């Protein structure tokens, strides 16, 4: 009988051992490269936000199935067959191959089958089998047991495939080593040619000739991730970099280059500066960036909203060709025009949002203005055209204000068949519609800016199932796939809807552990799609990836630096800073995206720099102004 010490059993165990945890497979799954690992090991390899896995053996990437993750991967037929054989070996018992009930007594060499005494009698009577050689198992010397013979027969083909695959892996590793060596040589040669070209262009410039500019294919900024790094596209033809690096551009062509949109910035607190990355797209070269010496680039900023001097910026090269680090010290926040010149040629510029900067206020944060004539505002959003949409809790209304804060119209109380009961959070969809958390009616409403309810709305009802809610409060629309995230407060969870407002997923449950909630109130989503949730009675903020996988948390109950008391509203600016209103501490606290405390401002009171229970309702407009619902003071304070 085969045992765990026989060579065939040991070899089989090796084929069923996970190369990540080095234990026998637990719920094995197979990647697209045909390597198998435990499901838990694969989940530990997943990267965010791409949700793909790099195989530990061959480093090939496999994209995980949407919503299912590693659990959605299949299992290869080879591994399935190995597991079946292994289980039979482990059980230590073999049955008749014909009836599968009795123990085998003989072995037919032609049929390669084990037969019991009853079945062998029938076998010998049939004319097609009557001439077969049948040996009693008691007379068989080799293999040493009937089970070993069966195992050798069953796994011969399977091991052949596995050995072929192992040979392929060895060849793949050799090819990877060769490729890395080749790429290192290409990079060294390319760098040398590039330096020669730059020196030649600078010499031409000094001699008064037309300046030449370098065109760099954007894909090479991450050359190790792409197969086509040796080519750029021009007039539908492909050319090697060694032939066409440094394509000469005329001044007319250069003027057609455009600065890419600037989405995010970074604060430099100690110097009160902001920093961001800038690149210049070349219009005639598909997916290409312009690369020039930083000394030839001039960048200036000017506020679009106020008369202010042009702010000059420092330009620093980065490790990515065609990408420049820009540092400046803004004197005013808001939308700025970015003007870029390369060797005195003006390019097509872009705009930059300088947000509210908590680092620049050493002593006191002063509001820019205050909006009155509201009744307990409990949700706010700002349309791209500047109009302000506000939930008013006590009168059960949604009001639309002008950019200056003048009330234009209100919806609710049966107007256009719209009614609310204790409405809270507000969000604006990609098509400009308004989503409202109709809290006490346990549903979500969608209306146009003109107050017309959308078809098939409202959605939801009281309950704990899919598309059922218990007092939903906060609502947010993600820039990733335009999904809608809803704080289902009294169900202690977050419901996620697709862009068409069909059900997508649920995450969270009642509790105090990571990923659990005690009355989540509001949701904010950053530019990468990461989700921040205020966990009111756990006195913390929790951070999740777009699929609701827990990442981290910050805050604890209290009134000290970095502590929170009944966090309510939440918003994220374009610098990645997280702003949290505290219902219990009557203030706003600011954190970095990883939860490091920056500062807080506000205290209990009715003055312009004080709050009285700020609740759900905090957001930024497109010019970087911060809107805060000061609930019991019945006003919105703008910073």
Automatic annotation (TrEMBL):
Calcium: present as a keyword of the record? no
Q: Which Pfam families match?
A: NHL (PF01436), zf-B_box (PF00643), zf-C3HC4 (PF00097)
Q: Which organism is it from?
A: Amphimedon queenslandica (Sponge)
Q: Where are the NHL repeats?
A: 407-450, 459-500, 506-547, 551-594, 598-639
GO BP, one example? protein polyubiquitination
Q: Does the keyword NAD apply?
A: no
| Keywords on record | Metal-binding, Repeat, Zinc, Zinc-finger
> Which residues belong to any copy of the RING-type domain?
18-59
> What is this protein called in UniProt?
RING-type domain-containing protein
* Domain B box-type residues, every copy: 91-137
